[in-house]
Write a structure and sequence with these properties.
- The protein has 248 residues and is α/β, with parallel strands linked by helices.
- It has one domain: Glycoside hydrolase/deacetylase (TIM Barrel, Alpha-Beta Barrel), CATH 3.20.20.370.
- Helices cover 41% and strands 14% of the residues.
- Helix 2 packs parallel to helix 8 and helix 7 crosses helix 8.
């Protein structure tokens, strides 16, 4: 009888642990902005990010890292690429399976023009509670699509879908050899039916420019496509250079 009770206890403990892991907490990533071009900081609830191979700020010098989350093309993504090329600036594009399959020529153009094509997962699912194997499948599926198209290995930079993060996810990314890249500035630019005015966007972005900024822009945004030339020129005037993620 004691053996039976002990066995049941072990089974129940294992079940409880499984349940706990399945309901592990996660956070929506955000950054606390500061005034006067000072570098922003993490809220204490996200401080665990610093314990992993993850980045939300670059060097404390006049450098900006241009990053874009691209799930599809609507004419604005290629315009963004062309504007970057005009300034000799390199961007990092975190892409999904959809855009690789539907717009292969655009992905090839990004790679051939020296931009970094990065992993945003294949299907844009919340990955915070996924197992290591499940995370690996999401990343590998995209890596394979990119390699088959370009003949190149996808760089090991990852941005979590929906900006959702957990210790479990960051740990899995490290084990898979990936650096997780968040951002130190982003704004509401993703809704194509509710685009901010050019004047508002330019002012907001420039007012929040800071050393080592990792900026997240959605390249499907018409506003972003229309103002990027102006932004790049103004950042150049301010003495900023445009860095690449391998500097992180």
């Amino acid at each position: 009888m004691k053996k039976i009770i002990k066995t049941l206890s072990v089974i129940l403990s294992a079940a409880s642990l499984t349940s706990l892991c399945a309901s592990a907490e996660y956070n929506d990533f955000y950054i606390m902005r500061k005034k006067d071009h000072n570098r922003p900081c993490l809220d204490t609830c996200l401080s665990y990010i610093d314990d992993y191979d993850a980045y939300y700020l670059g060097k404390d010098e006049k450098v900006i890292y241009l990053t874009f989350d691209a799930g599809y093309e609507n004419g604005n993504v290629e315009k963004i690429v062309d504007t970057l090329d005009k300034h000799g600036a390199k961007g990092a594009f975190f892409v999904l399976e959809n855009i690789i399959r539907r717009n292969p020529e655009l992905i090839v153009k990004m790679a051939e023009h020296g931009h970094t094509v990065c992993n945003h997962s294949a299907h844009h699912k919340n990955m915070t509670n996924m197992s290591l194997d499940e995370c690996g499948m999401e990343l590998t599926a995209l890596e394979n699509e990119y390699r088959e198209l370009t003949g190149k290995q996808m760089p090991k930079f990852f941005r979590p879908p929906e900006g959702k993060v957990s210790k479990n996810l960051l740990c899995n990314m490290e084990k898979l050899g990936y650096k997780t890249v968040f951002w130190s500035f982003a704004y509401a630019d993703w809704n194509n039916d509710k685009q901010p005015s050019e004047e508002y966007a330019v002012k907001l972005i420039l007012d929040n420019t800071h050393n080592g900024e990792i900026i997240l822009l959605h390249p499907t945004s018409k506003t972003n496509a229309d103002i990027l030339d102006q932004l790049l020129s103004e950042w150049e005037r301010m003495g900023y250079r445009f860095g690449t993620l391998d500097e992180l």
